[in-house]
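Throughout our pipeline, every protein is held as a single compact record rather than as scattered files. The record that follows is passed on verbatim for readers who wish to inspect the format.
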Amino acid sequence: MAFASFDKQRAAAPVAEINMVPLIDVMLVLLVIFIVTAPLLTHAVKLDLPTVSSIPNPAVPIKVEFAINAQGERFWNGEPVSRAEAALRFAAEGQKPSQPEIHLKADQAVAYRVVAETLADTATAKLSKVGFVTQPESR
């Protein structure tokens, strides 16, 4: 592996040999890095952690079934109530830290005014979880 030559024709030709010195240097540097970092990866701290049961406590959402029949009568969880009494109950539920879900079931023959009054009462009580319960169309 001669780099210097007095032959002009041979000196102009490219060198077809791989220079191994830089590759060996890189390999040795990587070897030193792995030797230094390997003990750090196996170091562990012993801890006595507490044990707990893995049974989750499912949060049961509170819901209120509010129904309005075709005659405009209101029902709170199946119990008949007036509009004023329903508004008071909505206000009491709105003051709780966890607001209930209001499931509103209205007969299709009821006047929209009655449904709108109920929605206004829930909005006044600052209840935001109001949903309409419907039946799918039969085919």
Notes: The radius of gyration is 40 Å. The chain has a mean pLDDT of 85.
